[in-house]
Fold this protein.
Amino acid sequence: MLLAGGGSGGSATPVLAVAQALRRLEPSVQLLYVGTRDGPEAALAAAQDIPFRGVHAGKLRRYWDVHNLSDPPRVAQGIAESYALVRKFRPHAAVAAGGFGAVPPIVAARAFGARTLIHQQDVVPGLANRLLVPFAQRITVSLPSSLAHFPRRRTSVTGNPVREEILGARAELAYERLGLAAGVPVVVATGGGTGALGLNRLVAAAAPHLVARAQVVHLTGVGRGVPAATDSPRYRAIEFLVDEMPHLLAAATLVVSRAGMGTLTELATLRKPALVVPLPDSHQSANALTFHRLGAVEVADQAALTPEGLAQRVLGLLDDQPRREELADGLAHSMPRDAAQRIARAVLAWS
């Protein structure tokens, strides 16, 4: 089985969740992850002892950027590199969950004759999955609202896959491994595996207001950190976590995050209240709106948000346990927990 995609942790974690389910259902399965050369998926795959190969991939944009001229050749190069890997590995099937890193491996796998499945996490599909529809024999989606974007006969609703590490997360391990203070609320702020500079700036500037009431663990993304306005030991900026991340989320009193579906699904599994700040002018806005309508998250508009406003929203939720419980319940009931198994069974039925 070929696993594909990346460029961000959000597009890699569902694929790795399916890989875990494949191994449970068919222990003899052979796996190969093909992703980008500099994305977080290499580390995530290594944590699961899955062989990884990196190929070239061009970021797919719907707006003008000078890199739009240089990235198409990178995609073509990535397809050629992926096809060479596919010919050697000879997969029966390939699975991806979006991200620009998914395009070269899935195109190559389909050209080789492997069965292909793409999973749509977000409510509105990104450009990568739109491009991959002609190469996908089966499509799965997280939510019914996504069905309208894909050919109905090839598409089914499964929910979004969640890694075993999330299902088995233990808050006490985060306290032990990260040195968290007992009895102090834990605010986890994360922009995803590649970070979110706009959100990082807000959190770092809001930190002086937050540390008086809570300890803040700020996942900035590699090379995306910004100087914080406090030197309090209650504020900690960490670029990237792998093994400890599920336990940290389990320990969180409140999570401040982007509105990527991977993060939202993990928070739903762990039943965690969240204040989401969707990436402006992106597919995340539709995610945030959908879950807000379900009463599952609170939403803040980054363009209108100040550090003081962010602190006020966070501190207000820390002081309102009934509201946090309401949000946690709404999010927990929004997604099924067995999506990885559903997708894995569909893939194994081909082999």
